[in-house]
Amino acid sequence: MRVELVRRPHPSALYGALSPFLALLITATLGAIMFAILGKAPHLALYAYFIEPLTEVWSLHELLVKAAPLILIAIGLSVCFLSNNWNIGAEGQFIIGAIFGSVLPVMFPEFRGPFVLPIMLLMGILGGMTYAAIPALLKAKLNTNEILSSLMLVYVAQLFLDWLVRGPWRNPQGFNFPESRNFHADAVLPEVISASGRAHYGFVFAIIAAVVMWYILNRTLKGFEIRVMGQSPRAGRFAGFSRAGTILTTFLIAGGLAGLAGISEVSGAIGQLRPVISPGYGFTAIIVAFLGRLNPLGIVAAGLVLALSYLGGEAAQISLGVSNKVANVFQGILLFSVLACDTLIHYRVRIAGRPSAEGQGV
Amino acid sequence: MRNTTKFVLAAVAAFGLAGQASAAEVKACFVYVGPIGDFGWSYQHDQGRLAVEEEFGDKVETAYLESVPEGADAERAIERFARSGCDIIFTTSFGYMDPTNKIAAKFPDVKFEHATGYKRETPNVSVYSSKFYQGRYIQGQIAAKVSETGVAGYIASFPIPEVVRGINSFILGAQSIDPDFKLKVVWVNTWFDPGKEADAAKALIDQGVDIITQHTDSTAPMQVAAERGIKAFGQASDMANFGPETQLTSIIDDWAPYYVERVKAVLDGTWESQDVWHGMAEGNVVMAPYANMPDDVKEMAQETEAKITSGEFEPFTGPIKKQDGSEWLAEGEKADIGTMLGMNFYVEGVDDQLPQ
Amino acid sequence: MIEAILLTIATAATPLLLAALGELVVERSGVLNLGVEGMMIMGAVAGFGAAQLSGSPWVGLLAAVCAGALFSMLFGFLTLTLATNQVATGLSLTILGLGLSGMLGESFVGLPGLKLQAWAIPGLSEIPLIGKLLFAQDPIFYISIALTVAVWWFVFFTRAGLTLRAVGDSHVSAHALGLRVIRIRYLAVLFGGACAGMAGGHLSLVYTPQWTENMTAGRGWIALALVVFASWLPWRLVAGAYLFGAVTIAQFHAQAQGVGIPSQFLSALPYLATIFVLVLISSNRRMTMRNTPASLGKPFVPER
C-alpha cells in the first residue's frame, strides 16, 4: 500500500477551510491516546489545552501577549521567505531591536515626556533593520549564505545583550544583579484595556502590520516584485527587478518588524532589559510563518493557535500534573497534524494498492 | 425526567469527585526556571517540593511548572498559579523577582516566596536565599591541602554576586591554608551545557590545575576530572555517582527544611513576610560526605563546617584585601549585608579579571 | 599540552562533523531538514538508555543510530510523501524531539553513563604531537573521519552520488530522466537521521557520558550552519567543525590565562569566526553556486 499525491488543478477552497479542523481532530485523537497511555483522563487534558485558556478574560489577554511577538516576527519573515531569502536570524534582530529601543529609558532615564515611547519604538525598528542589514548586505554584495550568517548573528546578539545587562547597563540600584533599570512610566507600552488584563499595544501593532503587509503583497508592485523574485529570479531580472534590492528590502522589513516586536515585548511585557528576553520567539515565528501559509492574515490565526498551545500546555501541567515535556510533545503533534492536513489543499491523496502503471515507482 | 435528574446528580457527583483532589488544606505551587531533570538547580528545588508532599501527605497538594522562561512568560505562569487556588507560591529564580511582586500586589491573600531576590513590595512576599559561599570556603581549604600544583580551576557560569561570592570564599579558604594558592577562573556563559562545561574543565586541566570546582549545573566537569585522574567538587547535588574516586565533597542545595517550614506556617496560619538568608546552621547548605582525601584534611573540613554551623566563624571576616591590594575589611570586621548581596569585586589572589 | 588541546578540540568537533555530514547528504538531495537538533537529542537519549539497559555502550551507539534514523522517517513521511513544507516540518521535529527525549529520559537523570572507550593503535599512537590525536581516539572519531572520506567519495565519484546530486539540482529533470526522486530523498533523509543520531550518541556516550534534558544545547543548529559554511563539500566540513571547535576551546584557554576581555566577547568568537571565514570563501561566487543544490527546500511531487 502506498500513499500517492495527485495535484489538484486549483487549490481546494473546501479543504482550505476544512483542513484546520481536520488537523484539530487528528491532534485531539493522537493526544487523547498519548494522555491515556500516560494515565491521564484524555477529555480533561484536551479541555485544559484547548478550552480552559479561553474561558477567562485574563487568560485571553495573556494569549494576545504571547501571540503578539510571534505574529509580528512571522509577518516579516514571510516576506523574506516569499522572496526566497532564508532569514532565520529573527531572534537576533528581535534582541537588537529591544536593545536599540531601550537606549532612551536606560541611558537617559531623566528624559521624559510623550515623545519617549514613539522614539523608542522607532529606535527598536531601526535596530532590527540594522542587524538584519548585515546578512542582507553580505548576501547581496559578497554572496555569503544568509542561513549561516543570520543564524550565527543570533548567538552574537544574545551574548551582546548578556554583556550589556551585566556590565554597562546594569541597574545601579540592583545590587549588581544582571538586569537594567526598570523603565519609567513614560517608557512603558500601555495596556490596551488595563482593567481586565495586560495585553499591550504590541498586539495592535501586529494586526496593523498584518493588514498593511497583506495589502502590500497583494495589491502593490513591490509585493509582486517580491513574489516574482522568489518564484523565478530570472523572470524577475528580465522584468527589471534588482536582486540586491529585493534582498535588502525583504530583510529590512523582517528586521524592522522583529525589532518592533523586541522593543514592544521589553517595554510592554517585561519593563526592563534582562539577560534573556525571548524564549525563542524568532525561531517559533518561522513555524508560525509557514503554518500561516506565508499569508499575513493566516499568520495572525497561526500565531494565536501556537500561543494557545503554550498556554494550554501550562494549564495541563497544573491541572493534570503532566510535565513540560508532554506539553512539548503535544505541541509537536499539533504542528505535524496542521502541516500534514494542509497538503489536502493542493493535493488529492490516493491510497494505491500497487504502483500505478504509468507512474514512477516511489 | 427522573432519569435526567439522576444524570444531573451523577454528573454533580462526578464533578464533586473530581474536585476531591482539592480536599487538601493548602496548595503549594512551584515555578522552576529549568527542567526538573537538570540534576542541578531546579532538580534540587523539586526535591524540596517532594519533601513537602512527604511531610504533609494529604493535607498539602503541590503543583509545579518547569522550564518557565524569565521574562513575559514568568508573569503568566505565576498569575495562573495564583488564580488556580495556590495558597503559597515559590518562585525559584532571580529573574522572577518583578513578576512575583507584581502578581503579589494583585493577590493579597496568596503568599509568595521568591528565591535569591531582594524586592518585597507587599506584605505577602518573602525572599529567601542560601549561603552557598559557606561551603565554598571549606572547599577552598580542602583544595589547598589536597592540590599538588597549588592551582585550582573554577568553572563559573555568569558574573553575578552569587557566583563572585563563591569564588572569593573559595580563595579565602584556600589562602587560609596556603597563602600562595592560585585560582584560575573560566566563564562559560551558561548555567547548563554539559559539552561546554566539559571543554572548560579540560582546558583548565591542560593549564595545570589539579582541582576542579564548578558553579554550573551539569555533572560533566566531574566526569572529566574523573577521567583525567584529578579531584573535583560537585555542585548543587551529590555527584559522587559521577566520580566515586574523584569527588572530594559537594555543596548540596537542600531546600526541603525551608519549604516544609514555610508550608507549615501557612497551615498554621503563622506565615509572615520575611527576608532570610539561610546557610549551614539552618540545614540549607549541606556538604556531601568528605571523601578521597587524607583523614587529617577530612577532620579539618569537619571542624570548619562545625564552626560555620555554630556561627563561631564566618568566611568573610577581616582582614581581607581586594584584588587591587586595597583594604576591604579590617581585622575582625565582618562584611555588611549590602556588600555581600551585591558583591562585584574579587579579593586578593584570584587570577582573573572580573567581567564588569 | 598541545596534544591534550588537540584532543579536546577533536572531541568537541566530532558530533558537529557527524551531524553535518548527514545533513550534507540530505541537502545534496535537495531536502532541507532543520530538525537536526531533534534527531540528535533522540539519538542521545536512546544511546544512553540502551547502554544502561544492555550494559554495553556499543549497543547504545547502535540504538542512537537507529533512533536518529527512525525519527528522521517522521520528517521523511511528512515532507516527501505528504509534500509538507520542509522548514516548518524540520523545526517541528526539533520541538517534538526535545519533548519526547525528555519524556523518555526521565528515569535516566542522575545516572552515570557508560563510556565508549578509546582505541589506541599500538605504535602509531606514540608519535609525538599527532599520535594521540589521530590514533588513540574513541571509535566514533574514527567513524567520523572514515565517513567523511566515504561521503566525499560517494558524492563525487560514484554513479549513485551523481544521481543524488542530480536529484538535488533539479528534481524535475531527474524525474524526467526516470530517477526515483522520492525514494532517493528518503534514503538521504534516513542517512541524515542516522548520522545525527550517532552525533547524539557521541554526546551521551563519549563527550559527556550522562543523560540530561536539552544536552545537545544547540549543537544541531551549529551543524546546520556548518553545512552551509562548507558549501556542501565534505572536506570543508572537517575544516569548519574543527575551526569551530578550536575557537571554542581556545577562548577557554585564553580565559584561564587571564586575558582581560569580557567573556561574552570571547564566547561570541566561534560564531564571528565562522561568518568571517564564510565571507572569505563565498567571494568565489562561481564555485559556491556550482555546489549549492538548486532544488534545496522545494517539495517535489511527481506529476502524472
TrEMBL record, chain B:
The keyword 4Fe-4S does not apply. Coiled coil: none annotated. One of its GO terms (cellular component) is plasma membrane. CDD domains: PBP1_BMP-like. Pfam families: Bmp (PF02608). InterPro entries: ABC-Purine-Binding, PnrA-like. Keywords: Signal. The keyword Signal applies. Residues 1-23 form the signal peptide. Residues 26-308 form the ABC transporter substrate-binding protein PnrA-like domain. This is BMP family ABC transporter substrate-binding protein. It comes from Oricola cellulosilytica.
TrEMBL record, chain C:
Keywords: Cell membrane, Membrane, Transmembrane, Transmembrane helix. The chain crosses the membrane at residues 32-51, 58-80, 86-105, 140-164, 184-208, 220-244, 264-281. InterPro entries: ABC_transp_permease. One of its GO terms (molecular function) is transmembrane transporter activity. It comes from the Bacteria. It is a multi-pass membrane protein. One of its GO terms (cellular component) is plasma membrane. It is found in: Cell membrane. This is ABC transporter permease.
